[in-house]
Design goal:
heterodimer, A: four-stranded antiparallel beta sheet, 10 strands, B: mainly beta, six-stranded mixed beta sheet, 0% helix, globular
Amino acid sequence: GAGVSQSPSNKVTEKGKDVELRCDPISGHTALYWYRQSLGQGLEFLIYFQGNSAPDKSGLPSDRFSAERTGGSVSTLTIQRTQQEDSAVYLCASRSGQWSYEQYFGPGTRLTVT
Amino acid sequence: GQQVMQIPQYQHVQEGEDFTTYCNSSTTLSNIQWYKQRPGGHPVFLIQLVKSGEVKKQKRLTFQFGEAKKNSSLHITATQTTDVGTYFCAGPPGGNQFYFGTGTSLTVIP
C-alpha cells in the first residue's frame, strides 16, 4: 500500500514568512510524529499525535511552531515568522497504534529560509 | 534532559571489514529501535529490542540491548557497499517522545 507522503518536498521561503508542511500518514495508522533533522544531524522530536488524545507538544522549539491533525489522519505543521535556524528537513512518521513501535517515515520536506 | 549518544560519529571501513556502532542513553529505555538512513533518504526501521540483554540477528547484522536497558549496539559482519548510510538508535524513555541517537555514518570503501 501507499506509504507516508509529505508535501511539498522542498520549500524555500523568506525570513518572516509563515509556512505549512503537510503529512499524509499510512491509512489506519493512529500515531503520528513530526521530527526535524538539520544537515548532518540526528532527528529532533517535535510533536506526537495518538488517536483522539491531546497531542504531546513537548518537543516544539518555540511558540512559532504548531501542528494539528484533522480527522485523525492528515497532519499540518505550521511555522510562523520563519527564521534562518528553522532551515532543516522536516520528517513525518506514522505507526499503526499505541503498542506498535515501528515508525514509517515519509520522504521529508526540505525547508530553506533565506 | 534525555540524551542518546552514539559512537563513533563517522566510520570508514574497507569492504569486507566488520563495523560496530554503540548507543548510550542517559536514562533507561523501555525498548530500543534501530533505523538506517541512506544518503538523501529517510530513516527506515531495522529492528526493535525490548528485553534486557536481548540479542537479535538479521543476516549480517547483530543487535544487542544492554542489561540495564541504557545501551545498545549494532554489529555488521563483512560490510558491503549496500551497508552505506547513517545508523540511528532510538527509544522511548516511557513517554510519547522518541529520542533518536546522534547517528553513526558508515562509509564502505570498495
